[in-house]
UniProtKB/TrEMBL annotation:
Entry's family note: Belongs to the pseudouridine synthase RluA family.
Organism the protein comes from: Clostridium simiarum
Domain (Pseudouridine synthase RsuA/RluA-like) ranges: 87-237
Superkingdom of origin: Bacteria
NCBIfam families, per the entry: rluA_subfam
EC numbers on record: 5.4.99.-
Protein known as: Pseudouridine synthase
Amino acid sequence: MKDLEFTVETEMSGLKIRDYLKHHKGLSTRLLRGAALDGRIKVNGTKVKLNHVIKQGEIIKVDVFKEESQNIEAQDIPLSIVYEDDDILVVNKPPFMVVHPTKSHRENTLSNGILYHFKENQSASVVRLVSRLDMNTSGLIIVAKNQYAHSKLSQDMQKPEFKKYYRALVHGTVKEDKCTIDLPIYRQGEDTIKRIIDERGQRSITHYKVIERYNEATLLELLLETGRTHQIRVHLEYIGHPIYGDELYSKHDDSHIIKRQALHAYGLEFPHPRTGDIIKLTSEMPKDMINLIDNIR
């Protein structure tokens, strides 16, 4: 795994290396402390402490690799890998798969398969999820392969250049070709997972456009500006177009044509944590959604 490498710019000369790496290069305080203690921060090949004062032209290298373990069983589970490099892994999660082990789902999760993939490829990375999906939602998930990538991507998720696109098949004919739903989402109580539209909730923004209209159904592309739990499902139900197969937010019984909500996280755009280059990725819709569309047509 390659070290992070920076050459000190003229205007940065005189700063402490801690401030330079944290405020100008985006490294977290936790990462810096750990790297300094382990001797993983070097200037011109020599290990330095965080109070080192940097000078123009000095070459700073930070080893972002740290030996770690994780209480997850590695399992040989087939993965649909869309993108991978030293810092990130992007996989296309199938429907009906839990992302991370829980008390009720300790095995056969996406994380079990990812950890096996890392070990098979002689990588000591642990599973650092940058994004998550509901068990019954399919699509792209980002996994960071080191602490730096996870911290940087988590910060970048709040920026407009980090985009998450979804496809959903909804009941009814959506009239507007494009629209923005800006409605607050609220959880009524700790004993329920269901969310509602309520002024007490958090501001939630979903942009959508029509991809194709069918007989009493519409295929939508959705772009999330915020990332609330069940955001797309709650917003679409509220405007009168619940997602096919959504047993929690729809009154329709679609179990004869699809066994889960017809929602797929199909696209991602985000800056690479190391280079800043924009990564653009897409994935095919799963077979159950394709079959559903064929049936509706």
